[in-house]
Amino acid sequence: MLNNSNDGTRQHPVDLDHQEIDHVDSGSCSEIIAKALTAATLSFIGLGPEDANSNCDLLPNAGAQKRTLDSSFELPPGVKGIRFVLKRDSGECMEVVSSSYESLKKDSIQLESKQWQIPMAGDVVTIHYEAALDKGASSPQGKLERWEILYEEFQKTGDLNNISEAISALCRVVETISEANGNLAARLTDLGNLFLTRFEHAGDLRDLAEAISLQSRAVALTPEGHEDLPTRLSSLGNALRCRFGCKGEVSDIAKSISVQTKAVALTPDGHAQKPGLFLNLGTAYMLYFRQTGNLSDAANGISALAKAVHLTPEGDTGLPSRLSNLANSFLCRFEHLGNLDDASEAISLQTRAVRLTPEVHADLPGMLMNLGGSYGRRFQWTGDLGDIAESISLRARAVLLTPEGHAGLPDRLMNLGGSFMCRFERTGDLGDIAESISLRTRAVHLLSEEHADLPRYLMNLGNAFQCRFERTGDLVDIAESISLQTRAAHRTPEGHTVLSGMLKNLGNSFQCRFELAHDVSDLSEAISAHTRAIDLTPHLHADLPSRLSGLGTSLKSRFEHSGNLSDITHAISVQAQAVALTPEGHANLPWLSTGLGSSYMWRFRRTHDPEDIKNGISNLVQAVQLTPEMHAERPSRLINLGSAWFQYFTSSHKSDHLDAAISAYKSAATYTSGSPRTRLHGARDWANLLNSFHPSSGTVLVAFEIAIGLLTSIASLEQTIQHRHTLIGESWSIPAQAAAAAFRLGRPDKALEWLEQGRCLVWGQQSQLRTPLDALKTHDRVLADRVMHISRYLENMGSSRQHSGTDMSWEGKVSLENEALQHSHLASEWNLLLVRVREIPGFEEFLQPVRCSTILQHLPESGTVVVLNAHNDRCDAIVLLAGSDDPLHVNLPDFSLEKAKQYRRELNSRLRSHHLRVRQAEAIMTEDWAASERAAGRYGRKRGPGADGIYLVLGGLWKEVVKPLLDVLGIARLEDSSKGPLTRMWWCPTGPLSFLPLHAAGVYEGPHRESIMDYVVSSYTPTVTSLTQRVSNSDSIAQDVSGIFLVSQPKVPHADPIPGTTDEVSSLHQRAKDNGIRSEMVDGEGASAHTCPDLMEKFSSIHLACHASQNASNPLQSRFLFHDGHLTLTTIMQKNLENADLAFLSACETGTGEETLADEAVHLAAGMLAAGYRRVVATMWSISDRHAPTVANDFYEYLWARRSKDAGTKFDGALSAYALHHAIRNLRENLDNTERSLLTWIPYVHFGY
């Protein structure tokens, strides 16, 4: 008989299900043979009944001790041939074989052998037999043996085809047995257990229903007092327990416990089946305990499981699984009470179970999975990283031992993913959450759509996406989480025990998205899901407190949004109930106390009731005190406490309350585990309080130093460039604020370092990935080659990797999540490689944040670099001069952040009035400039000089920023440019200054007109470091690549024609040939977005005359428009452009940034610099198709006129800044100073060296 005893209660996502198979079938084939041979033996030796030898005639053989059975001997059913040896203690021995035995056994599906003894008066007969079983399994007993073989094969391989064939074989057996046959009940029990086994692996609820029906019928056919009644009752109890786990009907678990209890009571002490019966009873109690949280159920369960272990002798093959189940019961109680002794006991028992299980045993992967789960649970409480490392190691080994196609593989993948997710929640390592999502996506993919466990899998995968969202803020992840959890909830039947938990998780995901996107509909969905979850949760359920708290959090959010006092009162009520229902020492108590404390603080803001603030701080203090050291949530709880103390300070004005707030924020910022985003929040608040209340303290610099370091860590290389930009946008003001504090404290060097470290992070990372490695190759070529290899992969994946989407197939999702995992592994290896390189003497600063002293060593000799920083209370400049030992700090008292924003608004207003900021689809044709510009913009009506508009902007920049700097530097106006070249000035603006035309600052009205163009040649640089890297690494361009590639696209879909581009490029190409310069031109349909990148690799410089479009939400998708598609920045950055020199972007808005990412320079010009070009000519807004060819011709003529005599076919853009200055001067001479004319030449800008 197949006794389907379950070794544990399913606790997701921990794999606790293992089956212990006890063969106790009294009607097995071997016993039938044994009975027949015993009767024959008694007949042979003269001790049987008188007629016992009627079918046992022996034919004489050559030897006296060997006999052949007569053909009249009736073999047992299912046996084709037999050989047995009879041996008496007295020494007499006889061998008996059936005819043709030797040949028959070769065709048998299985040989069966057995040995036993028959005691007799004064003697003992030992019988040993071999039986060749019927290969065709034509008899009922033959079919029975076949299903047993198939079942054993299923246990080894997990192949569901084997269990299905076993069911079919046994069904045919059952069909041949009449109701009156005493063996029918046994066969029904076996068949029911096979259906139950298939259900547990395939999840088809029809199998479960069939199992219960068959086992109920078996019990009904078994009379009271029958020796097999206990095992049949227990099998029925197991099936009922499984249905309770699926549907949550309390009557099922109550009946399961009832029949299991009866089974134990009917079984006498010492019976071989009693340990298994105790096992099943204990498992049922533990499942009920998970539902109710009733400690008496846990005590009964542990007691029964302990008896199962106690009654199992050492060496019994069932001992390991029973130890594992007892361990699971202790773990279950630990999760409820948080008593570490229970967790340690679970680990001890499961370790013993693993040691007792042979390496090749089919149960070993499950044992390892359970032991890994216990280490993981203990880790969640203690934060000991050794525990979670052991958990991952054990579960990874379990997965490796599980063959592809095994029915248990999806569960093991899911649970291994759970362990990685646990470690991620503590350390914030994105590699772990990528591993978790990849494993869990694969697990879901392996499950059929009809599998009963699919909702659980979907929920767990959704949890992983939510975890990653909370770390990165990527809305794609939370959308995927909501989609998966919604699907899980919809697929779960009403009344199912897990539905309430799924609804809670779904509510949490909606809440998370609301907190970032502030869509009120998400908040409504969250409250609805949480409310329904509570309604479905029994009053005494162990998870009720967490569900109440989830509702309280959403109600608090609605109060924050709407101000309805009833919401926050309701929130406090349900959260107080949650805390009250939670026993002391419970692992969830700190989290529940945090929620309650935060709600009290929010109500205090409205009511100013001192009881609210007292209760709020009390709960928040308790939450921190109860949170274990190194717990990932400790920083966020410290931040909540810090916020509460500061709120208290604003009403009490007591310094100790302020000190408590500062202390809490500092602790959060300097914590060594937890989310970097959370710790950055703490560092920012710490710095802000110090900056506001202790502005002269040197600790201000310490706080900002930590904040800047954390800012760079949140946008790490394992994320796509698009998402790194999103993360940086959340904290864009920190570098400017930190720099302002450093200026105030007399540390311009620190201000420069922070501005360099905290701005243009993404382009800086891309630049690092392209760092020349000549020096490292000299020391260690293998290491240098590996650094180069990984950097190329990271650069490519950062710019090209896509996110999986909610509407994507599971195959596609598995593929993309594997890519994300590979990306994460590469980023981790990159960090390890950096550590190795920095251990080499002389390479300690390799790719470290650049120090001020290093920056000063590599400044350009040909001019001055000016870094501008504007914050709320001040505006400052850092002037950097080659040969200087220190940066020069220049305060700009007449300028401010508010003025910068005012000028930006005014400029945008004027551009919109001239249709120079309108997107292409919104363009409006005007008579003045019909079909004459390179993007959507068109010039409108003329506007004369005045006190506002563009004149206000340019005049203000001149008087308040540019002229004061020129005066400090002693740079005089050069009336006649022919008397000598102007000095160069590189502008490195921050914040809203990045959108203002500093290169055109001046007075353009009245008698005293002057502008910056009379003093210096202006260029821009995204960062000082990007400029100094060009100075220090000014390698010559390979001669075979030096040249210019010219492209024009006069007509592209969905954009106005720009016919001037054809003449522009054609003229330049002809003049290049006239000057002997290597060049190639493609025009119109002769140019392709697909082939252009390859040609860019073959030429050092490119001139693009076309439409362009900036993508603010995804800067890497900013693009140049071709007739056959788009040439994106992503595509360009994937090319090897190590010989790139000049890019002239004769298109519109190629130097326009994005206001939400002011310090990231997310425009095409900066992208071309990051792709490898040394200098770029770009535009800040739309340019005129009428004047663009003239500007381009004048630009190149300036360069060609200054070529050296030995230049040959080479093209050199080193003088491009002067060339643009010259071309713009020529254009200005043909224009007046009306606003329209100014807006014609101002957009042209130069970037780079």
Automatic annotation (TrEMBL):
Pfam families: CHAT (PF12770). Gene3D superfamilies: Tetratricopeptide repeat domain. Residues 957-1248 form the CHAT domain. It comes from the Eukaryota. InterPro entries: CHAT_dom (IPR024983), TPR-like_helical_dom_sf (IPR011990). This is CHAT domain-containing protein. It comes from Coprinellus micaceus (Glistening ink-cap mushroom).
